[in-house]
């Protein structure tokens, strides 16, 4: 499965919530939001979960390799798509501007200077 996005990211962030830790198998998720339109090629499987504040997120993953490549929020999927930064395989990808669920951040994770930090989800 592949996703093609256009333009610069609307924003880049990291999430330290326990659901993202479990979903990625890492200590946080790094995501970049892009405006629509975007296109997907290949087969994607879905997993839907509810966030702490009731929003429903539809995660798409590859049934062949298991990569959790992107997700949308139900009800606002016509606006943007969130893509896993690792899916770009670009070490020069822009650093995150926001960090959410800092209350779940592992103590040894160091954030970039100047990043906006939220204890939980700011929305």
UniProtKB/TrEMBL annotation:
Q: Name one Pfam family in it.
A: GFA
Q: Which residues form the CENP-V/GFA domain?
A: 1-102
Q: Which UniProt keywords apply?
A: Lyase, Metal-binding, Zinc
Magnesium among keywords: no
Record bears the keyword Electron transport: no
Entry similarity comment: Belongs to the Gfa family.
| Name of the protein this chain belongs to | CENP-V/GFA domain-containing protein
Q: Which organism is it from?
A: Rhizobium herbae
